[in-house]
Model the fold of this input.
Amino acid sequence: MHPAFRKILYAVAFETGGIVMATVALRLMSDAGGAKSFSLAVFSAAVALSWSFAFNTAFEAWETRQTTKGRSLLRRTVHAVLFEGGLVLILLPATAWWLSTTIWLALTYEAVLIGLFLVYAWGFTWVFDKLLGLPNSAK
Done:
């Protein structure tokens, strides 16, 4: 599979599941209704799509230069933590504004979402790699 197509497929499939999960989580955690939770989840997914493409391009460039190939538990964990940490820094102010709340409460919401997405990202990537094979950078 062409690397660019693989990245696009990964990002779109991941964010589709992420929108559903984030909408439900935001609806349960906050006073925001379904429409506001969904619109924030869609906005966050659009930001995350851009971040995903940039981050994974950089990660795979780094991964290509490594002598140890494959994706170990440690490598997958580092990938998920770095990706989600960068995304939270980008989305935290938007979340506080969107939900008309303090940065601290938005950070609480983001912390819950981070926890959910760390598990989701690790599992999704593992399943994606099992179904489509490892990218060239990890072979």
